[in-house]
Specification:
Blueprint lengths: L1 H180 L1
Amino acid sequence: QTRRAVELGVHAAEAEERLLQANAAVTAAETAAQAAGARAEREGAEIARRREEVDRAAAAGRRGREAVERERERVRRERAEAEQEAVLEEAAGAQQDRRDREEMEVARRKLGEERAAAEMERAAAEEERAALAEERASFLARQAEEEEERRVEAEAEADAARWAEEGRRRAEEERRQAEALA
C-alpha cells in the first residue's frame, strides 16, 4: 500500500510536472500567439499602408496616363492644324505663284509688244535711211552724169576750138605761102 501510495505520488508528481510543462507550453503558445497577433497586426498595417501606396501610385499612374493622353491629343490637334495651315499656305502659295506667272506672262507679252514696236520703228527708220541713201545715190549719179556731160561738152568745145584754131593757122599758113608764091 505504501508502494502504491508512492507510485501514486510519483504519478501525481509526474502528472503535475506534465501539467506545469503543459501550462508553460500554453503560456509560451499564448505569448507566441500574442506576438504573432502583434506581428500580424503590424504586417496588416504595413500591408494596408502598402496597399494605400499602391492605390496612390495607381491613381498617379492613371493621372499620368490621362495627362499623356491629353498631351497626345493636343499634339495631334496641333499637328492637324499645322498640316491644314501648311495645305492652306501651299494653296495660297500656288495661287500666288499662278498670279505671279500670269503677271510675268502679261509683262513678257507687253515687253514683246514693245520690242516688236521698237523693231518696227527701227525697221521703218532703216527703210527711211535706205530710201534717203538711195535718193542721195541717185542724186549723186545724176550729178556725176551731168558732170560727165559737161566734161564731154567742155572737151568737145575745147576740141572744136583747137580744130578751129588749127584750121585758122593752116589757112593763115596757106595764105602766107600763096602770098609768097605770088
